[in-house]
Design brief:
The structure is a homodimer. The first copy, chain A, is an alpha/beta fold. The first copy, chain A, has 2 domains: about 180 residues, inorganic pyrophosphatase (n-terminal core); about 120 residues, Diaminopimelate Epimerase, Chain A, domain 1. In chain A, about 40% of the residues lie in helices and about 15% in strands. In chain A, the strands form 2 sheets. A 6-stranded mixed beta sheet of chain A has the order 6-7-8-9-11-10, sandwiched between helices. In chain A, strands 2-1-3-4-5 form a 5-stranded parallel beta sheet. In chain A, strand 8 and strand 9 form a beta hairpin. In chain A, helix 2 runs antiparallel to helix 4 and helix 4 packs across helix 6. Chain A is elongated, with a radius of gyration of 21 Å.
Chain lengths: ~325, ~325
């Protein structure tokens, strides 16, 4: 059942002992939205806490500063930015008891009893900001920081096409309400472990280019990660960089897993459909970002993809 | 003489055959602001053109699409985003004839006959947007793209502390007026020549760390640039990356010049004053970003800086 803002206001006003669920592999949007909602409920004198199936990376600690870490039997469960019960991870068995879900993913499975879904919003934080504004909620600096974090992280710091005018205007409002935008962005975007740069350096040292510079292949082995004591976030960093190479229409990143198997990530520009290409090996995803598992011979799997890409681009390998 | 917005409107309305000056080593803000102003003057039926002492990088071509490339004897000269006549490069002899300067640098030398200076603005494009809005100028999509480009590039895509609420709100307005924000940001921020990544890789392969990970040193030789046919923009890319290493309070980048001499760039976090450190070698700049020339033995110069930094941080080298 769809819950409009008036109904969301009722649910929150009537709630007691609220558990706020966020998705596994937590990001700035689910945590920022969760923290802002938690602070609002606490300001109403209710008990509330944010939970996640996974450890929360320490860079997000500021979102939860001063919040009580309570354990209690919830009387109301709200999920934020969680499109599918599977994304709750080890908390999935709570999915049937979710009273309200606030989300912005068009793929939301409507698993909650009531759902406030805004698929045009670039971040769940924008949906919650609109709720707060229409309900006349007093937003303090901590809430503003939390909501700004969601907006900024889910839009690549206002770079992506999901950063629409409303999103920028919400950010402006939140800055006026006390969000420390520059500090948050340094923390979220401008700070990476040295090991990630070292692995990036190693990966580029082995770069292969095909199709006259239109296709790049970077390979990251477990040995590289081990040598620099890098974590698997490094995969995302290198994959993001591969899409930034000028002239490259398809950036391929091959990532060795702990069990020795390989995953392949694709980032494409027009006219290449990353999802269709990865479909060749049973994978999938979006038009511009997709992935698949390589077979036992990862180089043979790469060749399968390269042959198809070369055909699509009408070029020799 | 300070020109308020009403006076700027008069000058522009009365102008004929307008030459718009931008600063050497042109960036998105001077070019975007210049292009938007040029389009406005053309819409009033005047002749106008944007000039620069240096070649304009091709990534900015879209700003000038459809603009006539005319040569004429100017009756009015306007400079945008130019704080000092020296920044006009080979066009410096026109400085005495500048009728109006629109700028946001507190360091503006007030060389123009009249100056509209807004030192709190994160970009000259924000100052011009405010002028347009208060004068009731009809902003079309091309003008919106140009102004958005200035806003975004001078604020690191809304990351830096100079991106205030007004800046975000202006961006929101410009998106509604037709600015293609996602396309512009991919072009400005997410596209870099392959050679830059290759030099970055080589530089990190030779990374040195001091003071328990608080100081990093990267060295870029002319040989590295030559090997990958990289341009000197690579220096900026590597310097920017050095500041993103987690835990590093001082990122030092040493850059060999074409004549074999070395320049040193510093990026710092609190408590290190980059300008004071570079002052040891006769250089200077800002608190968080500064530079200097190394002496004939660049490693000895580095040692001078490192010793001072270690003292400041109270650590052994």
């Amino acid at each position: 059942m769809q819950a409009d803002i008036r109904r969301v206001g009722e649910i929150l006003a009537d709630s007691e002992d609220v558990l706020i669920l966020t998705h596994k592999n937590p990001d700035g949007d689910c945590l920022g939205t969760g923290a802002a909602l938690c602070r609002y409920l606490l300001s109403l004198g209710k008990r509330a806490t944010v939970v996640n199936a996974d450890p929360i990376p320490s860079k997000f600690d500021y979102l939860f500063e001063g919040l009580p870490q309570e354990t209690f039997e919830p009387k109301c469960i709200v999920s934020v930015d969680v499109a599918d019960p599977k994304l709750l991870g080890s908390l999935e068995d709570l999915a049937d008891r979710v009273d309200l879900c606030i989300d912005h993913h068009i793929s939301n499975t409507l698993y909650a009893k009531e759902t406030h879904l805004c698929p045009d919003d670039g971040a769940a934080a924008l949906s919650l900001y609109r709720i707060f504004r229409e309900l006349g909620v007093a937003i303090d600096a901590d809430m503003a920081n939390a909501l700004y974090t969601g907006l900024s992280t889910d839009t690549g710091c206002f770079r992506y096409s999901n950063a629409n005018a409303e999103c920028y205007r919400a950010a402006a409002d939140l800055i006026e309400l006390g969000a420390d935008n520059a500090w948050i962005n340094v923390k979220m975007f401008e700070t990476k472990p040295l090991a990630q740069f070292q692995v990036l350096s190693d990966a580029f040292a082995g770069l292969r280019m095909y199709c006259d510079g239109k296709v790049s292949v970077l390979k990251i082995s477990q040995a590289m990660l081990a040598q620099h004591a890098a974590d698997t976030d490094t995969f995302d960093f290198v994959t993001a960089m591969s899409r930034q190479i000028e002239g490259v229409l398809c950036g391929i990143t091959m990532k060795e897993q702990e069990d020795g198997s390989w995953k392949i990530s694709l980032r494409t520009h027009e006219p290449l459909d990353a999802s269709a290409i990865c479909g060749l090996l049973g994978g999938g995803g979006h038009m511009r970002a997709a992935g698949c598992n390589a077979g036992p011979d990862e180089e043979a799997s790469l060749q399968t993809l390269l042959s198809y890409i070369a055909e699509q681009l009408g070029c020799a390998l």
